[in-house]
TrEMBL record:
Residues that, per the record, bind ATP: 32-39
Residues of the full protein shown: 1 to 183 of 1155
Subunit structure: Homodimer.
Free-text comment on this protein's domains from its UniProt entry: Contains large globular domains required for ATP hydrolysis at each terminus and a third globular domain forming a flexible hinge near the middle of the molecule. These domains are separated by coiled-coil structures.
Intracellular or extracellular location(s): Cytoplasm
Family indicated by similarity: Belongs to the SMC family.
Stated role: Required for chromosome condensation and partitioning.
UniProt name for this protein: Chromosome partition protein Smc
Length: 183
């Protein structure tokens, strides 16, 4: 399974409909400060079901909607679509007949988010589950935000271990061990 396209409209600084192709291999996004590089990563995190506004540098979820500039008026709607290619059929269960999986999240000011998978209305949980198995969820340590490397370097050894365990996917084992010890 591979991310192949990202479509944005009204999301943060991407007010006009924008489509990005994500080719196989390494992708670099280059541009001056404030041009929207981090906003792209946040769009990916958001469409995968991120529900903590703070981790998207906002105070409320409506802050992801284009807020306007000197020259352009604000929007009331933001939409992001992430297209996954599933030709190799190693995507999530339930999608074995689909070559493409399109996940869309849309938010309207004051009325919250709605999700669609391949055009069908679904719950936030369905989207979060779709990504949970691939270890690519919105909270996945594989998505490293700006500043997180600094946090890792400055963290206390205990906290640093916790981050590395999360990245290695073994933090769940500790929880289960504690549960077993209590029995
Ligand atoms: P740097 O190189 O400094 O990390 P960057 O390319 O990562 O910069 P971003 O942080 O992605 O830049 O983009 C910041 C820009 O996005 C700012 O100009 C900010 O005003 C704009 N922005 C963020 N949220 C919104 C919003 N809701 N509406 C309009 N513009 C927004
Ligand atoms: Mg940035």
């Amino acid at each position: 399974m591979q991310f192949t396209r990202l479509r944005l409209s009204g999301f943060k600084s991407f007010v006009d409909p924008t489509e990005l192709l994500i080719e196989p291999g390494l992708t670099g996004v280059v541009g001056p400060n404030g041009c929207g590089k981090s906003n792209l990563l946040e769009a990916i995190r958001w469409v995968m079901g991120e529900n903590r506004a703070k981790s998207l540098r906002g105070s409320g979820m409506d802050d992801v909607i284009f807020a306007g500039t000197d020259r352009r008026s604000p929007r009331n709607l933001a939409e992001v679509t992430l297209v996954l290619e599933n030709r190799d059929r190693n995507g999530p269960a339930g999608f074995n007949d689909e070559d493409l999986i399109e996940v869309t999240r849309r938010i309207e000011r004051d009325s919250g988010s709605a999700y669609r998978i391949n055009g069908k209305d679904v719950r936030q949980k369905d989207v979060q589950l779709l990504f949970a198995d691939a270890a690519t969820g919105a909270h996945s340590p594989a998505l490293v935000s700006q500043g997180r490397i600094g946090n890792l370097i400055n963290a206390k050894p205990q906290d640093r271990r916790a981050i590395l365990e999360e990245a290695a996917g073994i933090s769940g084992l500790h929880t289960r061990r504690k549960e077993a010890e209590l029995r």
